[in-house]
Amino acid sequence: MSARIITISRQFGTGGHTIGQKVAEKLGLPFYDSELVTKIAEKSGFDASFIKENAERTSSVSGFFYDMGIHGSSYMPMSLYDQLYITQHNIIRELAEKESCVIVGRCADYILEDRNDTLNVFIYADNDYRAKYILETYGDNGKKIEKRIKDKDNTRASYYRHYTNREWGDPLNYQLCLNSGYIGAEKCVDIIVQVAQGK
Amino acid sequence: MSARIITISRQFGTGGHTIGQKVAEKLGLPFYDSELVTKIAEKSGFDASFIKENAERTSSVSGFFYDMGIHGSSYMPMSLYDQLYITQHNIIRELAEKESCVIVGRCADYILEDRNDTLNVFIYADNDYRAKYILETYGDNGKKIEKRIKDKDNTRASYYRHYTNREWGDPLNYQLCLNSGYIGAEKCVDIIVQVAQGK
């Protein structure tokens, strides 16, 4: 049996997007990263640029989103971020139901955790490697590179914690964690394909 | 270039010892796990059974061991655990200097972190897999299996935290983290060998 759905969680500046894309190419599967934005825009009516900016951000509403189920009877205004998360959640569930695919980010590992046909991967790297990668790929935006890395890590970790009550990057949430700076992107792709095909 | 030293950190009941042993066999390298006990016994004069029992335990001395360097002038009695750690630390440093090898546990990833020829691997698995593995491999010892797993995790995490001031199982301490229950022991061995040879 092969893993039907591969989810890729990735630190910023580790090449996780490209690794996911190449895994999808090698396995002949549809690939969803920013492609999800279009789907979310269609479904939610939100503007694509708003989604792109906020798809991995949380609201400032205190308490976890999942608490809403528990306290369903009490009034809690739903933020735009939460509406965005719900739309995204439903789209990811529908995609997984419909087809085999590769999905990057957006808590997909958590959203699909009740399925037994997923392979969840975490891509990370040392900060030196990430700094070099970010400057080469996205250029210098005037902000200190250490701060760019830290801000993105904090945003993604908060988003993941907020909606899943789990820790982003805890190996127990994934079946495979790869340091792309050490292993190399190409070899990461190979390993993910091997493990996906071995299931 | 190949990685000269492979360190394997492993949760109890994940087959990490056997995986390390097979990696060593495939690469034709010496393998050190309980083999270190004999070396430590020779060097320290401690009894082998005492070492086996306590080699991954910490003393109750408050404050981290590494503080001793900072507060070198103040008196702090050194516990047997710390003496054991120092002996172990020196043996691991000497081994790495002398030969290419595979080392299981004992903070080897941290002890050798200044080297650039190591591959650090973390082997983990879901608790259901571990429970089955432990009962099949070590048998039932009358203690609840959940407690056996929790106790071992706590001991290893405390030991690692005490001597390294880092979190055991944090992917950033390793270059490769593999869920052996999902991936399978044989495939884990393959992946480690591929990554080690790819460097």
Structure explained in plain terms:
The structure is a homodimer of 199-residue chains. Chain A has one domain (5-198): 3-Layer(aba) Sandwich (Rossmann fold), CATH 3.40.50. Chain A contains 10 helices and 5 strands. Chain A has helices at residues 16-27, 35-44, 48-54, 67-70, 80-98, 108-111, 127-138, 145-164, 180-183, 185-198, and strands at residues 5-10, 31-32, 101-104, 118-124, 176-179. A 5-stranded parallel sheet of chain A has the order 2-3-1-4-5, with helices on both faces. The longest helix of chain A has 20 residues, at 145-164. Chain A is globular. Residues 60-75 of chain A have low confidence and may be disordered. Chain A binds chain B through residues 119, 122, 124, 126, 169-172, 174-179, 182-184, 187, 190-191, 194-195, 198-199, and chain B through 119, 122, 124, 126, 169-172, 174-179, 182-184, 187, 190-191, 194-195, 198-199. Strand 5 of chain A pairs antiparallel with strand 5 (176-179) of chain B.
Characteristic key phrases:
homodimer, globular, 199 residues, alpha/beta, 5-stranded parallel β-sheet, 10 helices, Rossmann fold
SSE inventory with pairings:
The structure is a homodimer of 199-residue chains.
Chain A: E1 5-10, H1 16-27, E2 31-32, H2 35-44, H3 48-54, H4 67-70, H5 80-98, E3 101-104, H6 108-111, E4 118-124, H7 127-138, H8 145-164, E5 176-179, H9 180-183, H10 185-198
Parallel strand pairs in A: 1-3, 1-4, 2-3, 4-5
Helix pairs in contact in A: 1-10, 2-5
